[in-house]
Amino acid sequence: MLSRAALSRFRKNLLGWFAESQRDLPWRRTRDPYRIWLSEIMLQQTRVAAAIPYYQRFLERFPSVEALARAPQEEVLRLWSGLGYYSRARNLQKAAQEIVAKHNGAFPSEPAEALALPGIGAYTAAAILSIAYQKKHAVLDGNVARVLARLNAVRGDLRANGTWKDLQTSADRLLDGKSPGDWNQAMMELGATLCTPRSPRCLLCPVGEFCDARKQGLADVIPVKRVKRSTVEIMLAALVLVDARGKTLLLAPPKTSRKSAAPDDVHSLVSRMWHFPTVAVQQGQADAELRKFMEESLFRGRRLRAELFPLKKVRHAVTYRSITIFPFRVEVENLPRLSSAKAFPLADLSTLAISNLTRKVARSALALK
Length: 369
Ligand code: SF4
Fold this sequence. Notes:
Shape: elongated
Number of helices: 15
Structural class: alpha+beta
CATH superfamily of the largest domain: Hypothetical protein, domain 2
CATH class of the largest domain: Mainly Alpha
Bound molecules: iron/sulfur cluster
Strand content: 5-15%
Oligomer: single chain
Number of strands: 7
CATH topology of the largest domain: Endonuclease III, domain 1
Helix content: 40-55%
């Protein structure tokens, strides 16, 4: 534990460094809780550089909580399309609707009310409340945990039993109550730019003199690597039906989500968005299984003579799942008429909310021409 004088120096050094060295990011030019909230949600699972253009486009279309709350979900997903982890966008809109209905359109400043909103966990609530409202809540995410673990030379799995709790206590003790928003951002910035997972740049670190891992030569080995869940290989076949006008058939997003879906559940793999007819297949069976699915489910038992042209296979990864998709293009005179499907121009699916997996299949189908 740091003495009072050391703690004061630690805070001064870190805040001074942050004031001089912070990156100029769009969400740092505002105190608007809606904009800060949006940035925090987008930055979960997404790199800063990738999030910026999405953030800007999203705010152009939905400049306020009210605008987001009343938009069609399809449009919200379309603007999120390509960022992945679409439950973030769905929860964001649900939370916006709750904020309009229960909080007069203002993001709540009380932790219990913030935490009751869909998609808001302890980290996100602390980040928004401290940055937008200067509330004294210390953030703890993977980046900040790594910094704290190194400062205190914490060994072992940081997410294990009491360790995470101890790290939160350590974050709470360090928090500068006079400027909690800047403080939290400074801790995150240190983790993102200097105290990085690999090769931390200790020589440039503003708080290096307080760091036990550095003193003990352990900065490179703390925190210990977590054992990753082993990869599950999944094989899918996707059907790109194309009619004479260049239109293709996409199936509608399912109305409900299955909470405990199997790893090869197609609906969760296409992020519950518009998608090509797709089935899970066995090695070497892709065309036969897809033809069966096509005839039975899409053409109501009608035998088709149309040929299945194999397209360039597509690779995609979703968390622990490594997916290989075998797309097939099938030329038909008319697309089947189904209540759960719609025809769209294959060459322009950009106006639709589709997942990256669907986008890759479309690219593969267009590359054939
Ligand atoms: Fe991280 Fe190195 Fe700074 Fe310690 S001295 S906090 S390991 S960058």
